[in-house]
Amino acid sequence: MSSQKETPGQESENLRKWRVSRRRLLKIMGAAGVVAVVAPIFPSLVGKVSAARTQTNGANGAKPGRIRQWVMVIDLRRCDGCQGIDEPPQCTQACIQGHYAPEPMQWIQVFEHELPGGGTQFIPTPCMQCHNAPCVNVCPVAATFTTPEGVVLIDQERCIGCRLCMAVCPYDRRFFNWGNAPIPPESLLADYNPEHQAPAKRGTVMKCDFCPDMARAGKLPYCAQACPTNAIYYGDLEEDIATNGEKLVKLSHFLTENQAYRLKEDLGTHPRVYYIPGHGEAVSRDPRRHGRKATRWPWQEKVEGARTWKR
């Protein structure tokens, strides 16, 4: 073993050779079948259907060591924009509080669509988690990447703020952190991870991260947990199951039987977010209600001296 001392330049070069990016690490973890990646989704619920799954899947059932493929289903028949409880959309509020999202970012945003026969339909819209994601294809520094679980993430420590990903996103679901937005002090103590983008980094792009860390821990994403009508389902394509916390469904049957669709399917982006269409139910057509309430950032008035994030 050589005892020759490395020069500063040689030391930096060696560090660069041995440095492992998060993207590469995730690929290595997926190939090796790390136990954390294959931990059961929603263990208590999955346990109830294990016998049925064995009967229906037989020899072709999901095998140990596989990688989860997360998916979301939003039932528009149930969503009323939280008018029923006279509050801002709780999916958005929970996401903001759980991720310390800076104002005015709404990683899952509830849009209002006027129906031809009168009334309004509410459409919660997170990142679509596209299988063929334009944002991943254009990022010049690989700050936007897809994990083995099919989740599109952003590494703020790599992001250079060029905003090319924002320009090509057909769903307008990416947000630029222009400055020092009001955020709660506790967010500054968080350990940064692309799966939970806190604290926010100035000059970088942020978006819905699909909460895969929560799913692997057996929990629903913030938005699904907070929905008062249980309109948001979260599940695993490989396991062919999804749950809204109230009931468990066989994903393929649920999508087919309810004529599920994805936004802008003609673009070939292959989103991981599905919608169950509404059919003019009273929940979204009540003429006595007039629009949803405005979203709030609860720590807005608690942080003294912070500048409000503005377009």
Write the topology of this structure.
Layout: H1 8-18, H2 22-32, H3 43-48, H4 50-57, E1 70-75, H5 90-99, E2 109-114, E3 120-125, H6 134-138, E4 144-146, E5 152-154, H7 164-168, E6 175-176, E7 205-206, H8 212-216, H9 222-226, E8 232-236, E9 241-243, E10 248-250, H10 251-257, E11 273-276
Parallel strand pairs: 1-11
Antiparallel strand pairs: 1-8, 2-3, 4-5, 6-7, 8-9, 9-10
Task: Give the C-alpha Rg.
Answer: 21 Å
**CATH topology tier name:** Alpha-Beta Plaits
Topology as H/E string? Answer: HHHHEHEEHEEHEEHHEEEHE
Shape: globular
Count of DSSP-assigned helices: 10
Overall pLDDT score:
78
Amino-to-carboxy terminus distance: 58 Å
Oligomer: single chain
What's the CATH first level?
Alpha Beta
| Lateral strand order in the biggest sheet | 10-9-8-1-11
Proportion of beta-strand residues: 5-15%
How many distinct beta strands?
11
Number of domains: 1
User: pLDDT under 50 segments (min length 5)?
Assistant: 1-6, 10-40, 44-63, 302-311
State the major sheet.
5 strands, mixed
Provide a descriptive summary of the structure in words:
The chain is α+β, with helices and mostly antiparallel strands and 311 residues long. The protein has a single domain, classed as Alpha-Beta Plaits, CATH 3.30.70. The chain has ten helices and eleven strands. It has helices spanning 8-18, 22-32, 43-48, 50-57, 90-99, 134-138, 164-168, 212-216, 222-226, 251-257, and strands spanning 70-75, 109-114, 120-125, 144-146, 152-154, 175-176, 205-206, 232-236, 241-243, 248-250, 273-276. It has a five-stranded mixed beta sheet. A two-stranded antiparallel sheet has the order 2-3. β2 and β3 (120-125) form a beta hairpin. The longest helix has 11 residues, at 8-18. It starts with 7 loop residues before the first helix and ends in a 35-residue tail after the last strand.
